[in-house]
Amino acid sequence: MSESKTDVTVHPDAEHPEKFSDPGLPSHRPRQADIDPKADKRAERQVVVLFLLSVIGTIVALWAYFAVRPDGTTGGVRTSTLTLGIAIFFALAGIGIGAIHWAKTLMNDHEMVEERHQARTTGETREIAVKKLQDGIKDSGIGRRGVLKGVVVSALALFPLTIAVPLISSVGGDWDVSKFRDTLWKKGTRLTYDPTGRPIKASDVTLGSAVHVIPEVTEEYRTTDEWITEKAKAVVLMVRLDPRDLNPPAKQAGWDYDGIVAFSKICTHVGCPVALYEQQTHHLLCPCHQSTFDVAHGAKVVFGPAKRPLPQLPITVDADGYLVARDGFDEPVGPSYWERLK
């Protein structure tokens, strides 16, 4: 790299220099592919391989979407998601790394300098810009590299299928939103600890505690695939406050039992589990997007993107002192959807 002196123009009273002379550009260092035809061909083959990797990744992603379907179990969902995710990664990475390697090894790397000019351009300037774009296309060498051109076009054309096919295939699927209107909670259903299923007595719930709750079901039902889906809709977070701190909306008055209140654990924003309880403020926090609900005031939203309170489960005790539901939720649980205004 050549050295050059820098001239500085300074006013007598100026604290900083006003103008520096252009130091120029360092001498150009040719790449191996610029001087060795074998290296140039090798670089081209490497780029072709990377874009072929993208094509293969797209094909595997499409295969995985149809062949490796979730079977309702945790392991099945994990396998399907992992296979599809890895395939899409290679489909995207092949395009990205291939484009970078192409630019670094095959395209012109000579330094270019353009003087600053006004932002407003003339017709002549636009013509020059179009000419430079055309020169860039010519310089990329894609016109004379047939294999490279074919694999690039194939990768870019096929990759959108990894997104389009799942979207198109979902048309005509199960859009029955009424499934979210009802849960396993019914009048008289006992509240039990999650995950053991042991019934909860009101005397077991201490002041300030937060308990993760599921409805009582038979042991046989807990082994079915249906239980996984129904449990996901019915999970509840129960908290015990001083009854004097409760100030619920009028329609929810009396839905607690001696300061014990129970709310759906599913955030009304996008359905994340609301599981962080702050005892001093009586706030429930959703860890995903920080929606915050005030338990003392009917779980109303006090912060964050959620638009409606958490649905409350009205509770009481049975003859044996166990906490039971007075009824199911009075509204659908979970995030809002197109049938809801909020």
From TrEMBL:
Transmembrane portions of the chain: 47-68, 80-103, 147-168
Domain Rieske stretches: 233-324
Domain of life: Bacteria
Organism per entry: Luteimicrobium subarcticum
Co-factor(s): [2Fe-2S] cluster
Protein name (record): Cytochrome bc1 complex Rieske iron-sulfur subunit
Pfam families per UniProt: QcrA_N (PF19297), Rieske (PF00355)
GO cellular component, one term: plasma membrane
Primary location class: membrane
